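User: Hi! Is it possible to get a structure for several chains at once, not just one? Here's what I have:
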Amino acid sequence: MKILVLGAAGMIGKKLVNALLHGGMSETKIDEIHRYDVVMPPSLDVDIPVHAMKGDLSHEGEAERLAALDCDLIFHLASIVSGDAETNFDLGWSSNMRASWALFEAIRSRSAMNGGSRPKVIFSSSIAVFGGPFNGPIDDEFLCAPQSSYGAQKAAIELLLADYCRKGLMDGMSLRLPTICVRPGKANLAASSFFSGIIREPLNGLEAVLPVEDTTRHWFASPESAVGFLLHAAQLDTELLKGRRSLNLPGVSCTVAEQIEALRTVAGNDVVKLIKPQADEQIRKIVGAWPEDFTASRSKALGFQADSNFEAIIRNYIEREL
Amino acid sequence: MKILVLGAAGMIGKKLVNALLHGGMSETKIDEIHRYDVVMPPSLDVDIPVHAMKGDLSHEGEAERLAALDCDLIFHLASIVSGDAETNFDLGWSSNMRASWALFEAIRSRSAMNGGSRPKVIFSSSIAVFGGPFNGPIDDEFLCAPQSSYGAQKAAIELLLADYCRKGLMDGMSLRLPTICVRPGKANLAASSFFSGIIREPLNGLEAVLPVEDTTRHWFASPESAVGFLLHAAQLDTELLKGRRSLNLPGVSCTVAEQIEALRTVAGNDVVKLIKPQADEQIRKIVGAWPEDFTASRSKALGFQADSNFEAIIRNYIEREL
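Assistant: Yes, the chains can be modeled jointly so their relative placement is included. Here is the combined structure:
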């Protein structure tokens, strides 16, 4: 099997490739992995061919170049993040929506040339497709009414993907990933960045800004759970989705106050003191429209597995990254 | 006020223009109406300037040409119909989705040139944004999981429209029109065409094919109700939508058997005998995934009004068209 990872230099992309190289799809013989990102993915010293390519999917000819690799499985993780898409309207719609559309078109053309052999596309969507008001946990039949450009772009790509799949032009599904926490490394432009920052920076002896109230509730998965979702989806028979190709994934629902209490339990009071509340109206507004809790009944029934609680998410970070 | 109607030569477009010319928006002084369609809208002999333009919104430069008219209110009714969009994948995505996107972009550019004065766009979406399975009547928080390209295109345009409006780049809303019945004139390529055909043809002394089982339940509005929805939306303060700019509209839910019984009541047994059952698997499959009933609570609360029952829908047709 030949695998392509778009967004392979990102945090989840790197972990996904690593998992693929270490038995993450144990039933599958992997012959080749192609990694693609706007920055060159790091070189790897491994037994099977793992190629690295630098490029921007939104540029002319890039989608065709990738489709011509004739991969059997494509993880599409490439995205302009939420804060950036909100600030740069054109960039978000072009790099997220138009580029994904170009990819699906290129896959379709290539598939027609290859006698109909269709790759499977696992698209990383987001819970940002949902917007308030919410009445309790979001169930699997709740509407997409995104309150951010990022969410609108993800929802629109989901519609495209589902229609291309329904028409047999490709195979695939969209995974509405919870907010990934704790993200290692540096803060990014996502409006959700602080959810990781308030855990990560204190654990590294640094101060962290908390831009929202501690009553803010949100939906989380560890990076390892996210990789697990992607691998599980890649091995899932999409017929089981019965035409509804977007899935809300399981996660951990907790408030910022509960995040902080979990940090106190794991790392102590002095670490927690490094969290500094400092209201940011723009972030508060974006995050305030985000979902807080899900039933995730379908995905659980399909075998997707979440972290057990937020303490487990913190311990996962410490174990893997510190 | 300057008004632009896209799809003005269509059945609803013509009735809408007629209503606008006869006090349909009584609180509003209409200075000018521009009518646009792929076929030249018919000439009209009226007091105010009513222009007719022939063109295809999906062609280069057309969106800009229309935006440059600087209309205050735009009714966007132009669409490739469902059966056609299902058969011609590229045509549907290009003429429905890409062309609408180009229109929104052109409106945005023009508005920036005009110091931010934004037109209001009333977009005719469809209940085809919904796909089964359904659990009883569809409420206002039910997901869009379209099972046709037409429905996917409408849902994607709704997302775009909502995001452009949320960012203040234009104003507007999407109306998910029920299936319009009884459509006067000839059958079209919409998979829903027979719902009108089985009433219209017999009333005109002609045989009509019924391609689905008579237990098929569906959601209807008369052409006059549809025009009423459009006029009401045009006069509605979009702030009342609280960020959810797509509306399920009120309608009449009934089965084909109930349609037929209403026809028998209104026109007698000999007329009903002209309906000839003749199964069509492709139509049955498309229609079988369509919604059957709605709560339409939000739109009713906002003052949108439906027909009272299917008999009233038939009598409306007879009165207006025969």
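Chain B has two domains: 2-178+222-248, 193-218+252-292+308-321. The two ends of chain B are 34 Å apart (CA to CA).

User: Great, thank you!
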